[in-house]
Amino acid sequence: MSPAPPTRSPLSFAAVDLGASSGRVMVGTAGPGVLELREAHRFPNRPVRAGGTLYWDVLGLYRGVLDGLREAGRAAPRGRLASVGVDSWAVDHGLLDASGALLGNPVHYRDGRTAGAAKRAAAVLPPEELYAATGLQYQPFNTLHQLVAARGTPAMEAARRLLLIPDLIAYWLTGEAGTELTNASTTQLVDPRTGDWARPVAEAFGVDLSLFPPLRRPGDPAGELLGEVLEECGLDGPVPVTAVGSHDTASAVAGVPAQSGRAFAYIATGTWSLAGVELEAPVLTEDSRAANFTNELGVDGTVRYLRNIMGLWLLQECLRSWEAEGLAPDLGALLREAARAPALRSVVDAGDPVFLPPGRMPARIAEACRRTGQPVPRDPAGTVRCVLDSLALAHRRAVSDARRLSGREVEVVHIVGGGARNELLCQLTADACGLPVVAGPAEAAAFGNVLVQARAAGAVRGDLAALRSLLRATQPLRHHEPMGDQAAWRRAEAAVCG
């Protein structure tokens, strides 16, 4: 689409950013030399298990979005929002019937229904052929595997529309349906070379692509808030909705404050750590598939070449387990104790699927240490140190593998997202990678969301490098230089890799 004419004064934008553990609506103000972000509303994202299935409470999330938009209107200067953008986690979706009604709560990617789906998929199309066509890493919960698992179910039979989570929220806000490309690229049904559907793959699996509304790209218009939404949120219309990098990692990578001309790796941290490099074209080699790297599409035609790592989910689940036992640990105190604990005493493979389901995380970490002949953490601080050492080690492996497989050099590692606040994790990552780490912004996904909206509205101008330059000029960042012995990390890596 053609860029909007430039504006004379900053505009305000609402970024709806839904994560796996919480949702937030942020108000961003952007203009020439101006970029500010403030939180309007934050709300929990609590999955619900019912009838043996783990669901997302998507109506509860939508309620949080509406409450957030009301607060965003109050927080915006002059009460006026120039646009709204929505991003969320990937792969999950809602099914709609012919009338547009939701056929049931979307199923959580951590639900066990996809067990065995990958094996059935491999019988249709060998993994190496599927990777060569779509460039997507193996994950048991990929959308394609979910569709394989759902084949023949009443909901799937009745479905006339499939909307990924951010597209579903945007549909309820506007009444207009679309499929945003950065998130669609996680379905294992998109060809990353063309940015269009991988039709031979869909045909092989019997996936009816007419279930998906037309593709949108970041910056495309996505409708306007419905009258009932404006009334509910106390907003003056019209308020356009703009497609952003609706996969939250796509928005987070757009929000990496990288310096033009300096080769960088990124680690978008939160429930997951997504670690890799930004490329102009996908890497579809067999070596890349064997290393389980994914080629997801990003803002401005970029490719997010990355590996999924279990991330701060490990720590979040430990905290939940300890709270359930009545320990109510203080995270700040635990991190200070963990910083004093012996380094690399025990490490686990942060990518091991054994850590994917919820529950009993400290016990599963202890079991993994015992199984590999390492000391079992003696207390919560020891477990936290094991988790953070293991994440830093996984970051090291992912950055090293991304360099090797893509041929892209790396001079600096940018950590964005919630983990950017964790100084110990950032320093350990610098130590493990042997590279300087720039930490921040913590709300990179919301910043990326706002910047794409602002450019579409004409509040800011330029390419991705220009957007990142505005981030660097306006946001506080922390710098961590590598310290310590690389040999110790090499020994730990050898132990984890067997």
UniProtKB/TrEMBL annotation:
EC number of the protein: 2.7.1.-
SUPFAM superfamilies tied to this protein: Actin-like ATPase domain
Record keyword Lipid metabolism present: no
GO molecular function, one term: transferase activity
Residue span, Carbohydrate kinase FGGY N-terminal domain: 15-254
InterPro entries per UniProt: ATPase_NBD, FGGY_C, FGGY_N, Rhamnulokinase
Limits of the Carbohydrate kinase FGGY C-terminal domain: 265-457
Keywords noted in UniProt: ATP-binding, Disulfide bond, Kinase, Nucleotide-binding, Rhamnose metabolism, Transferase
Coiled coil regions in record: none
One Pfam entry name: FGGY_N
Family: Belongs to the FGGY kinase family.
Name of the protein: Rhamnulokinase family protein
Organism: Streptomyces chitinivorans
Top-level taxonomy: Bacteria, Bacillati, Actinomycetota, Actinomycetes, Kitasatosporales
